Amino acid sequence: MKTKKKKDLRRLIGEFIKLQLAGNIPLVITYIGLILFNQLLNWEEFYALALAAALGNVFFFIADDKWVFPARKGQKKSRYEFIKFFIFVVCNASVIFSITYALSYFFGISPYLGQLVSTTLSVLWTFPIMRFWVFAQTKSKVRPRRRTSKQSA
C-alpha cells in the first residue's frame, strides 16, 4: 500500500513539474506575440494582447494534452476533457488578460510586466484545476449486463 501511495505522489509531483514547464508556453508565446503584433505591426495593445494570449493557450492545450496529462495506461480520455479544458483556458486567459490589461490601464504598468505578474498568480489555481477537474482520473464503471428472458433460456 505504501508503494502505491509513493508512486501516486511521484506521479503527482511529476505532473506538477511538467505543468509548470508547459505553463511557460502561454507566457512566452504571449510575449512574442505582443512584441510582434504591438511593436512590429503597430496593433492596438488590446488586440495584440488578446490574439497573443489566444495563440499561447492553443499551444498550452497541445502540450497539456500530449505531454503533461496523457491518457493513463488503460484509460481512454474522457470526451468531456476537451470541453473542460476549453472552459478552463477561456476563464484562465480571461482572468490573466483582465489582470494584465487592468494593471496597464489603471496603474500604467507595462503589459509586459503585467503579463508576468498575472501569469505568476495563475500558478495558484492552474494545477489544482487542471489535475483534479480537467484531467481527473475517471473511475471505470462497468455494469454487468442484465439478462433478458431470451438469454436465460
Largest beta-sheet details: none
Write the H/E string, N to C.
HHHHHH
Please tell me the overall pLDDT: 83
Oligomerization = single chain
Uncertain spans, ≥5 residues at pLDDT below 50? Answer: none
Please compute the radius of gyration using only Cα atoms.
Answer: 21 Å
Features:
153 residues; mainly alpha; 6 helices; 76% helix
Can you walk me through this structure?
The chain is an all-alpha fold and 153 residues long. The protein has one domain (2-70, 77-137). It contains 6 helices and no strands. It has helices at 2-22, 24-40, 45-68, 81-107, 111-134, 149-152. The protein is elongated and about 55 Å long. The chain starts with a helix and ends with a helix. The model has no long low-confidence stretch (mean pLDDT 83).
Secondary structure layout plus pairing:
Layout: H1 2-22, H2 24-40, H3 45-68, H4 81-107, H5 111-134, H6 149-152
Helix pairs in contact: 1-3, 2-3, 2-5, 3-4, 4-5
In short, what is this structure?
With 153 residues, this protein is mainly α.
